């Protein structure tokens, strides 16, 4: 009887150990899957243009490093935070608040509260609105490192790099849009130009500065507004694709028809968040793919 009891106990222990092993292996596998979701393949960089209505929010991911440029309006904050979580984002190495307008920094306080942030870039200009004060409060409360970057400052993100092409640190901007922090992001053979809401005036200054702007993908400045996106600037950037971040039937008439005519003349493919929702570009350094076909046009010859 004693031996039988011992055997039963031994069997029970063995079964328990086996079960624990199976649970542990399954758990590890699930964990690995999650890690894979948040990490891009080596050498790969993704640029997500989120559908933030008449606002901007762009996520860049490469090899486990993440950058968020703007966070849409106040109403977008839950969407932006959920999107980042779905993407497996656990920290943001860099955050760029291009300029203090509500359609760019409205959801930023929620993002800064939710995720650990390495460094937050923002323009020097102070703008006295509740939304901007909210952002400054969270930055202070969470002791997040902030920096007013200078033109040509550059940073590594995974397999890519980004360089600030604006603002000119010697200049005070009257129009808040013109103080926008703009970057040119590169990965292998590919480049993206993301310049917030700058106007024609600043486009002119960028060209005069001689900083390299030529890019495969360009976010149209100021949601495709006619006060920006001059023919000279578009020609110099010479994008294969443009992305318009704007709201459906927005009250500003963005993108402006004249701007779209210039884009057509250029022959660039057009992506629009108002018609297509979120658009994702993936670059492995050699091949550039997009999550959708262009809404208009194709790849520039
Ligand atoms: Zn804007
Ligand atoms: Zn603006």
Quick synopsis:
It contains nine helices and 15 strands.
Topology:
Elements: H1 2-38, E1 45-49, E2 58-62, E3 65-69, H2 77-86, E4 92-96, H3 102-105, H4 108-114, E5 117-121, H5 130-141, E6 145-147, E7 154-157, E8 160-166, E9 182-187, E10 190-194, H6 200-209, E11 217-219, H7 231-237, E12 241-244, H8 257-266, E13 269-272, H9 273-276, E14 279-283, E15 288-290
Parallel strand pairs: 3-4, 4-5, 5-6, 10-11, 11-12, 12-13
Antiparallel strand pairs: 1-2, 1-14, 2-3, 7-8, 8-9, 9-10, 14-15
The structure holds zinc ion (ZN) (2 copies).
Report on the architecture of this protein.
This protein is globular. The chain has an eight-stranded mixed sheet with strand order 6-5-4-3-2-1-14-15, with no helix packed on it. The chain has a seven-stranded mixed sheet with strand order 7-8-9-10-11-12-13. The chain has 301 residues and is of the alpha/beta class. Helix 2 runs parallel beside helix 4 and helix 4 (108-114) packs parallel to helix 5. The protein has helices at 2-38, 77-86, 102-105, 108-114, 130-141, 200-209, 231-237, 257-266, 273-276, and strands at 45-49, 58-62, 65-69, 92-96, 117-121, 145-147, 154-157, 160-166, 182-187, 190-194, 217-219, 241-244, 269-272, 279-283, 288-290. The structure holds zinc ion (2 copies). The site of one zinc ion (ZN) has 6 residues, from helix 3.
């Amino acid at each position: 009887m004693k031996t039988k009891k011992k055997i039963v106990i031994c069997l029970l222990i063995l079964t328990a150990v086996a079960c624990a092993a199976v649970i542990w292996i399954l758990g590890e596998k699930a964990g690995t899957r999650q890690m894979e979701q948040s990490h891009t393949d080596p050498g790969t960089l993704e640029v997500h243009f989120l559908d933030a209505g008449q606002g901007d929010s762009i996520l860049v991911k490469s090899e486990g490093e993440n950058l968020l440029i703007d966070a849409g309006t106040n109403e977008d904050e839950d969407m932006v935070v959920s999107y980042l979580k779905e993407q497996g984002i656990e920290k943001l190495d860099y955050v760029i608040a291009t300029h203090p307008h509500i359609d760019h920094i409205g959801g930023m306080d929620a993002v800064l509260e939710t995720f650990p942030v390495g460094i937050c870039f923002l323009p020097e200009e102070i703008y006295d609105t509740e939304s901007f004060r909210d952002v400054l409060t969270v930055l202070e409360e969470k002791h997040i490192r902030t920096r007013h970057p200078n033109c040509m400052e550059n940073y590594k993100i995974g397999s890519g790099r980004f360089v600030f092409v604006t603002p000119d640190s010697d200049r005070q901007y009257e129009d808040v849009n013109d103080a926008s922090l703009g970057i040119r992001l590169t990965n292998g053979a590919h480049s993206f130009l993301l310049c917030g809401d700058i106007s024609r005036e600043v486009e002119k200054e960028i060209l005069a500065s001689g900083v390299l702007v030529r890019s495969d993908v360009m976010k149209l400045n100021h949601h495709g507004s006619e006060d920006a996106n001059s023919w000279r600037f578009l020609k110099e950037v010479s994008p294969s694709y443009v992305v318009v971040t704007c709201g459906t039937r927005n009250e500003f008439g963005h993108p402006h028809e004249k701007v779209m005519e210039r884009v057509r003349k250029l022959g660039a493919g057009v992506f629009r968040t108002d018609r297509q929702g979120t658009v994702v570009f993936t670059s492995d350094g050699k091949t550039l793919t997009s999550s959708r076909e262009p809404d208009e046009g194709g790849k520039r010859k």
